[in-house]
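Human
Can I borrow your eye for a moment on a structure tokenisation matter? Give me a protein, with the fold worked out from its sequence. Write it directly below this note and I will take it from there.

Assistant
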Amino acid sequence: RWRYFRAPEPRYRVLLATEAGQPLGYVAYRMHNGAGLIVEVFAPDARVLFALVGGAVERLKTMGARSVSTLAVPQTEYDRIFSNMHFWAFKSFGFAILPLAPDISRAFVSDPNAWDLSGGDLDVV
């Protein structure tokens, strides 16, 4: 019942990384007007992240994508991997965080490496 499997249009595709039969991570992607879009990636480390994104890019190329884009929080592992794979960084958009629990520190919400955020979370994919 996951959002990418239930979406009527556009059709999303998902790659799952496994090791010894156990899931490690995933990447969700789709085509839109001749362009590929990586909409969400979850990976425990750079090795799995690189493999998943590389697999999605190869599949999108096979589907006829002329380009591939994605979103990444600046200065995070995802951002570094995408940069190493020759994705170009463009001007990003901002958003604000309003901590509702008194025990969430400003330092925690100010650290982009503490986030697990994707385009699907912001409804931009």
About this structure: The helical segments are 3-6, 46-62, 77-84, 106-110. Strands lie at 13-19, 22-32, 35-42, 68-70. The chain has a mean pLDDT of 83.
